[in-house]
Design brief:
Helix content of chain A: 25-40%
Largest sheet of chain A: 7 strands, mixed
Shape of chain B: globular
Oligomer: heterodimer
CATH architecture of the largest domain in chain A: 2-Layer Sandwich
Strand order of the largest sheet of chain B: 4-5-10-6-7
CATH topology of the largest domain in chain B: Uridine Diphospho-n-acetylenolpyruvylglucosamine Reductase, domain 3
Structural class of chain A: alpha+beta
CATH superfamily of the largest domain in chain A: Aldehyde oxidase/xanthine dehydrogenase, molybdopterin binding domain
Strand content of chain A: 15-25%
Helix content of chain B: 25-40%
Number of domains of chain A: 5
Largest interface: A-B, 54 and 43 residues
Shape of chain A: globular
Strand order of the largest sheet of chain A: 10-14-8-21-18-19-20
Strand content of chain B: 25-35%
Number of strands of chain B: 14
Largest sheet of chain B: 5 strands, antiparallel
Order of helices and strands of chain B: EHEHEEEHHHHHHEEEEEEEEEHHH
CATH topology of the largest domain in chain A: Aldehyde Oxidoreductase, domain 4
CATH architecture of the largest domain in chain B: 2-Layer Sandwich
Radius of gyration of chain A: 28 Å
Distance between the termini of chain B: 54 Å
Number of helices of chain A: 26
Number of strands of chain A: 37
Distance between the termini of chain A: 61 Å
Number of domains of chain B: 3
């Protein structure tokens, strides 16, 4: 019998074909040993409770979860990790397939998926689709929506060929191109593209499929110490005393930081800086930071954190935004609970309702959705070799991080450098700052490298959520089908601090009218403080929440006047010449109608709608649709300048310095493609330098679906003079007129005589002699395309460009249990131009999976201000066994102001999912759910069967 | 994570003596899929984690038509459903075993662990109950055998006394004309904890027109998985009809004592008990008819 009280064991295993011997504590998990002792950080710690699969490794031939495997259970075993599956520098076929098949986006879940897929294929080289889904059901991917991921496995199994999934038209994806007379005059009208429009693998692919990509938690620095946050255990309380003395006395503790230690401003935030670096007099939400224990190890810091004693005077809390608006409600902030009010008035609302023949009035509610990027929050601060305080984190903007850090530290911006690590996605959550300031401050005060890593539970407890809304919507319609009036009152739960709520609720107020021409509109949209978690930008914010209401409502209007919902939409959608709710006249191509018609071509709306509803005794089927609009960029004239540098190097490569981060959305690949296209280079010649506040100019943040359009335009702007100079120098060196020159595949050549050619590399070396700079700046002022909204009427040019899309859904509803299964979704979205088609497809399918969860099951589930669903056993994300049959249509019609006509696609696909599903449920069973998520129990409760 | 000792036992005697020494604060490590998380999250206080994998009795897996099925407490789920003969003879057990987690969990999670966790929503417990499974428990006084339905005493609590641990399960060979089914209701297609789970087993007459006997067990509707005695007894000797099945379903609903929580309200759960009892009975009947 071995009774091990020394807490060490000799751990022996063969890991990636190498014998490993280590003294370890047998209670530690295999995951910790791999990551901490062996520096094999490809296996990720995402949920740490065995629910997400990100730590999957193969042990004695079986896929297992390293996070719940005690060291003792791995002892003596043969273990293979992602780092061990490529042989002699050659990628494993699955790794190749995940690159070719766009089987990943942010990449944090990818090593786990590849290992789970490997365990499957090793045993069953020719699995069925269902076997693949089952084999992968333990693994969560938040980005891809599984379609391309499963295709990648099939690619590796030889069941699909690369051509099968990359064609411009397959049964899962088609690109349809619209053109008109105007398009003939576009500068690129006659150009034959060499890079763009063709499927390109992500430029960071290899690092993602091999596990080499370093996410913040994967970094280790010699001498690194740890920070652990002491948090409020009340939602609303006055702090009477903070006693750190016991914690400070613990061996191994360096400092315990509180508001007293903040040298600069103890405040941060977006527009309104009302958040506290450390709470001083009052806490306003559960988990608000009060102190940071800095200690030699994480374990010591955790133990010391429990010794920090805080005396509170508990205050009554307010958890419902409508309650919070009442005058006698507990006041979250001194200035009152109403944080913002956006008022919109167009036409004469009373007149509109007087003209209406049918009036419908409903209340809708939407829930706090957790963004759930699979990477937990983390930050690492240290003094770099240049002596600068450097902070690595997964933030969505290194410049926003830096701004908040320098204010708190009271130092000039030159003293701080923020760097993005590889980011395990964001979806808006990381528009807010979490551990960055704390880590920076701890390093600033101790001089040591400090790392902070939140657990999954801490992450989901204290990070921001999607704003929950209460929407009162009233519309008037004529029996002939015209919507004549729309009135909305929207109350948004900002949570305890302002963060992005002003923008969110303004956006909600504009977008609630939907993609329709409505003469009389009145909207009041409020952001209200409560003692709930803070809310922030979330994929499709202001739109996913409100257009669920609008599109459900539109469906009801159509039914009320006996018109087919598709006909009703076609009659009312915005078109060329229409005026939006903010009185913005659209004197250009408006794709709303075409997205409906294209979706219909694949879905066969009328035919499907007329089919029988009865599938079996218990099951009914139904179809539903939704058409949406969404603004690209900040809009409303808000400052949004992007500043990019492109340098043509003398070796014939180019470097793009861009300040925004790529958190899996694929923007870096897009920028590389644009540069390669513009400069006649192949994609492998492009280097992207990004997410580094010292090496790039400020490009704002990766948000608002604006990377392709806004930053892409700046990249093109930087390339234009370089391209011009390449043509000029080529014409001189080849001795041909400039009109005869073309570039591509790393050469400049004569279009008439292909023998006359010169490598771009040789050309680049001549720039100096010709007096041309190889480094160019590209600026794009997105704010110039929109106007501030009128403070009285709320009208103005709210956004440009505007994205439109239509989705049609087919569902089955079990009338006995209320369970809804989504069978098919057809999604047609206008993208301008699909620069990287498979990436566009990935964004759309991924967006649909995000919307599916919002529609059916994702809910942070606040109980008196405390989110209850803190890990993936309770917080339900789509899994491989849930994903419906999805068909994507990328509708191309060049937007003349976009880079080669592109407008972007990140957020819009999330928006129509919930209303399309809700409308399909209505079609199936004749009842409607007004409160998201649509759980089986809610559906069942509406049925009287 | 809290500090605890770690030990590995090679015989039943070693395990019993260590468990006797440490009492309630000793926990068994079998597959380890739950205990690691429970300890990390502080949901279990543990002084000693006792690994029993080296004990031969907990690893046995054998079936013969006379003695039935013996499953060691530490046998991982996949070994059960990948065993062709067992899968063919006990499809009602496979229903439940193949539902636990995903592939990576099933490689390690054990039937014994699922029972000893004593979760009211555990999928395998109702399936075991309707198959008349018994638990062989080792302890200071030797071994004792108890029916599975008597094993759990509350959420996370069992009848195990100081020094005792679960050694194995015994399932009698299925009778002629019998069949069993387990179904659960979850909001997604897979990977959720049961909102309600129902197991049913039936023995039919030779003509397949009547029930000889039936057993129905419910999960997630009481502090422990329940054997719905009356619901099963109602069917004994009765004709196979929608009406009788409905009566059994109502009896099952009557004994359910669900609570309202984030997975569902008591009312909804009681409703689901009715739906699932009907479905599992129908499934069990179908299997029984095929058996013959």
């Amino acid at each position: 019998m071995d009774l091990n009280q020394s807490h060490t064991m000799l751990f022996q295993a063969v890991i990636n074909d190498k014998s490993v011997q280590l003294e370890v504590d047998p209670r530690r998990t295999l995951l910790d040993i791999l990551r901490e002792d062996l520096d094999l950080t490809g296996a990720k710690k995402a949920c740490d409770i065995g629910t997400c699969g990100s730590c999957t490794v193969i042990m004695n031939g079986k896929g297992i979860l390293a996070c719940i495997t005690p060291a003792e259970r791995a002892h003596g075993k043969n273990i293979q990790t992602i780092e061990g599956i490529s042989q002699n520098g050659k990628l494993h076929p699955l790794q190749e397939a995940f690159i070719k098949g766009h089987g990943f986006q942010c990449g944090i879940c990818t090593p786990g998926f590849i290992m789970a897929a490997k365990a499957l294929l090793d045993k069953n080289p020719n699995p069925t689709d269902q076997q693949i889904k089952t084999a992968l059901k333990t693994n969560i991917c938040r980005c891809t929506g599984y379609q391309q991921l499963i295709e990648s496995v099939k690619l590796a199994a030889g069941q699909l060929k690369e051509e099968d999934i990359k064609a411009r038209e397959t049964d899962k994806f088609r690109i349809v191109r619209y053109t008109d007379e105007e398009d003939q005059h576009l500068p690129w009208a006659q150009r034959e593209f060499k890079i763009i429009g063709k499927p390109q693998p992500r430029i960071e692919s290899e690092s993602r499929v091999t596990g080499k990509a370093k996410y913040t938690a994967d970094y280790k620095i010699p001498g690194m110490i740890w920070g652990v946050t002491v948090r409020s255990t009340h939602t609303h309380a006055r702090i009477l005393n903070i006693d750190t003395s016991s914690a400070e006395q613990m061996a191994g503790v360096y400092r315990v930081l509180t508001w007293r230690d903040v040298p600069g401003e103890n405040a941060y935030g977006k527009k309104i800086r009302d958040q506290q670096v450390f709470a001083r007099d009052k806490v306003r939400y559960y988990g608000e930071p009060i102190a940071l224990v800095v200690a030699e190890t994480k374990k010591i810091a955790e133990e010391a954190a429990r010794l920090v004693k805080i005396d509170y005077e508990i205050l009554p809390g307010v958890y419902d935004p409508e309650e919070a608006m009442k005058p006698d409600a507990p006041q979250v902030h001194e200035k009152g609970n109403i944080l913002s009010h956006y008022h919109l008035e167009k036409g004469d609302i009373a007149k509109g309702f007087a003209e209406a023949e049918v009036i419908i009035e409903r209340k809708y509610t939407t829930q706090p959705q957790d963004h759930s990027p699979l990477e937990s929050e983390a930050a690492l601060a240290y003094y770099g070799e240049d002596g600068k305080l450097t902070v690595i984190s997964p933030g969505q903007s290194v410049f926003f991080d830096r701004l908040n850090i320098i204010r708190a530290l009271g130092v000039p911006k030159e003293d701080v450098r923020c760097i993005q690590a590889a980011i395990g996605a964001a979806y808006g959550k990381r528009e807010a700052v979490y551990a960055q300031i704390h880590a920076a401050l701890a390093t600033f005060l101790t001089g040591k490298p400090v790392k902070i890593e939140y657990s999954r539970e801490e992450t989901m407890l204290v990070t921001t959520k999607r704003t929950q809304l209460r929407t009162y919507l009233k519309t008037g319609v004529k029996k002939t089908g015209e919507i004549v009036a729309l009135e909305a009152r929207i109350i948004g739960d900002a949570g305890a601090y302002a963060s992005w709520s002003l923008n969110i609720m303004r956006k909600a107020g504009v977008l609630v009218s939907g993609p329709y021409e409505i003469p009389h509109v009145k909207v009041d949209s409020y952001a209200v403080y409560t003692n709930n978690p803070i809310t922030c930008a979330t994929r499709g914010f202001g739109a996913a929440e409100t257009e669920f209401c609008t599109e459900s409502h539109v469906d009801e209007m159509a039914h009320a006047i006996g018109m087919d919902p598709m006909e009703f939409r076609l009659k009312n959608v915005l078109r060329r010449g229409s005026k939006t709710s903010t009185d913005f006249q659209l004197d250009f191509y408006v794709p709303a109608t075409d997205t409906i018609l294209e979706a219909d071509k694949s879905f066969h709306w009328r035919e499907k709608r007329s089919q029988t509803k009865v599938v079996s005794d218990d099951v009914r089927r139904g179809v539903g649709m939704a058409t949406i609009w969404y603004g690209i960029g900040f809009g409303s004239g808000i400052e949004d300048t992007t500043d990019v540098i492109v340098e043509l190097n003398e070796d014939g490569t180019a470097t793009v310095y861009v300040g925004t981060v790529d958190y899996g959305n694929g923007s870096n690949t897009t920028f590389a493609m644009l540069t390669a296209e513009m400069l006649g280079l192949s994609l492998d010649k492009i280097n992207i330098v990004n997410g580094d506040s010292d090496r790039t100019k400020n490009c704002g943040s990766t948000v608002a679906t604006k990377q392709t359009y806004t930053t892409g335009n700046a990249v093109v702007a930087a390339c234009i003079p370089l391209r011009k100079d390449i043509f000029y120098i080529a014409s001189k060196l080849l001795n041909i007129p400039e009109e005869e020159v073309d570039i591509g595949f790393n050469e400049a050549y004569s279009m008439k005589d292909p023998d006359k050619k010169i490598p771009i590399a040789s050309l680049a070396k001549q720039f100096r002699q010709f007096g041309k700079p190889r480094r160019r700046e590209g600026l794009f002022h997105h704010q110039k395309l929109t106007t501030p909204l009128d403070p009285k009427t709320g009208t103005g040019k709210a956004w440009f460009p505007i994205a439109f899309g239509t989705q049609m859904a087919e569902v089955e509803v079990n009338v006995k249990t209320g369970k809804v299964k989504v069978h098919k979704i057809v999604a047609a979205h206008h993208v301008g131009r699909a620069l990287n088609p498979q990436s566009v497809r990935g964004q759309i399918v991924g967006g649909i999976s995000f919307g599916w969860g919002f529609a059916l099951c994702e809910d942070a589930n606040y109980q008196n201000g405390i989110p209850q669903n803190l890990n993936y056993d309770k917080y339900k994300l789509m899994r491989s066994t849930d994903y419906p049959d999805i068909e994507v249509i990328a509708l191309e019609k060049d937007e003349k102001s976009g880079p080669f006509g592109a407008i972007g696609i990140g957020e819009p696909p999330t928006i129509p999912v919930a209303p399309a599903i809700a409308n399909a449920i209505y079609d199936a069973i004749g009842v409607r759910v007004y409160d998201l998520p649509i759980t089986p129990e809610k559906v069942r409760s509406l049925l009287t069967l | 994570m809290q500090a605890f000792d770690y030990a590995s036992a090679r015989t039943v005697g070693e395990a019993v003596s260590l468990l006797t020494q440490h009492g309630e604060r000793a926990r068994i490590l079998a597959g380890g899929t739950d205990i690691i998380v429970q300890v990390r999250e502080g949901r279990r206080s543990v002084d000693l984690l006792l690994d029993i994998k080296e004990i031969p009795e907990v690893n046995q897996l054998s079936y013969d038509p006379i003695n039935g099925l013996r499953i060691g407490a530490a046998v991982p789920c996949y070994k059960i459903y990948e065993h062709a003969e067992i899968a063919a003879v006990y499809p009602g057990l496979i229903d439940a075993v193949s539902l636990i987690g995903g592939i990576q969990i099933q490689g390690r999670a054990t039937l014994g662990g699922n029972l000893c966790n004593a979760s009211p929503a555990a999928d395998t417990i109702p399936a075991l109950i309707v198959l008349r499974a018994t638990c062989l428990i080792a302890g200071p006084q030797g071994t004792r055998e108890v029916p599975v339905e008597q094993f759990c005493t509350g959420p996370g609590r069992t009848i195990l006394q100081r020094g005792e641990f679960l050694l194995s399960f015994r399932l009698p060979p299925p009778q002629k004309h019998s069949g069993a089914r387990y179904l659960r209701f979850i909001p997604r297609n897979e990977m959720d904890i049961a909102v309600v789970g129902v197991g049913a087993s039936v023995v039919l007459n030779e003509a397949h027109t009547r029930f000889v006997s039936a057993r129905i067990a419910l999960g997630a509707v009481a502090p422990t998985p329940l054997l719905a005695v009356e619901a099963g007894e109602i069917l004994a000797g009765k004709e196979i009809s929608e009406e009788n099945i409905q009566r059994a379903a109502e009896a099952a609903q009557a004994i359910a004592r669900p609570i309202s929580d984030m997975r569902g309200t008591a009312e909804y759960r009681r409703h689901l008990v009715g739906i699932l009892t009907r479905r599992t009975l129908q499934g069990a009947i179908q299997r029984a008819k095929k058996e013959a």
